[in-house]
What does this fold into?
Amino acid sequence: MLAKRIIPCLDVDAGRVVKGVKFVDIRDAGDPVEVARRYNEEGADEITFLDITASSDERETIVQVVEQVASEVFIPLTVGGGIRTVDDVRRMLNAGADKVAINTAAVFNPEFVKEAADRFGAQCIVVAIDAKRVSGEGQPPRWEIFTHGGRKPTGIDAIEWAQRMTDYGAGEILLTSMDRDGTKIGFDNVLTHAVVEAVTIPVIASGGVGNLQHLVDGVIEGGADAVLAASIFHFAEYSVGEAKHYMAEHGIEVRL
Amino acid sequence: MAQDIVVIDYGMGNLRSVSKAIEHVAGAGDRVHVTDDPELIHAADRVVFPGQGAARDCMAAISGHHLNQAVLEAARSKPFFGICMGLQVLMTFSEENAGTGLLGLIPGRVRRFPEMRDAEGHLLKIPHMGWNRVHQARPHPLWEGVAEGSRFYFVHSYFVDPEDAGRVAGTTDYGITFASVVARDNLFATQFHPEKSADDGLRLLKNFIDWNP
It folds into this structure.
């Protein structure tokens, strides 16, 4: 059977890894190539780069980052952040990315997802969904899509959106709970489970991982095909290898 | 001795990862050429034949680049490594695109995964994407140093079904058991992507570079 995947996620700003990656024995913790190489050695199944470069004249730096990493690290690479046009997708794939994650642009122009999937194949189009619970305590759960880092509601129902994106040719969904992101209290497994049940494509759970049990819960309770985490790996609280062994001990198939 | 290794580029997908992975494991003097030039393919010591996309598009691209003969000649005469669509197009016929004729080097069909459910009743997702085990169906020099049941990275919706089971060098289970590696004489071809399969993938490519069938 397919292994459940563990995906470390790196925020990249103007070509440098940010959010304080802390490895004791790494020469330059801001160098995406070094950090990616480390994650590969630890057994990461994929690596996701999220480009958060704000200044437009430095936006090309992510292309060089992908080129350099893809020349030295031989596992699948996903790039997200600022993917708005078919040309953006092509540039990332040509640089060596295997998949691109489309987020805001999908919300503003859903046809873009269709166009990109038709052109490059569903397998390389990941739709990133930032969802926030909008129903009150005691009500049946309901989540909406939010943009701008979780600040702006769109009124779009997250489950319906996931289904629509699947119909449009998305190959995978990167599902982030904006309620849990940064909290370290675990994934929103109810949300993950609702999306997994609603679509036929793989779902990556994201947002809220604080310990290894959270990764297990994301797979067993949420039903996720893959789990994505940033800080627990960056700060070397746990290595990817430890995470995999922990998951294997809890009956989850992983690549060891 | 320094070798010329050709990665055949017929415009179907980005070959950077393939060529970089080959360079990573190649010898110091080895030259890696990414090309569609039949002369270079003819002159090469070894050939890597990647590919992605739909069967019909791949066949049209191979014809469009006038590569049918060069690919067939290489696949019959020198160490040859097919990857993903570079395996599928070696077969006779694909179910994809309402039926597509292929190069016909290895008798057999390319089939789509049927609708299947796992033990809990969930539909198996297509494409088959991610890390799955490859069981070594028979000994082969390219398996050297690669443990039985190692995981490799797959992305595909169709799989090959060779008529001669003796051609199958590796199998993978995904609802059904399918041929994930086909080999004969000087040819070795994988459904998975060795260039995306971390150390085991690189080991396979390194073994290919050293292989003298």
Notes: Chain A has ten helices and eleven strands. The mean pLDDT of chain A is 92. The first strand of chain A starts at residue 5 and ends at 13. The radius of gyration of chain A is 17 Å.
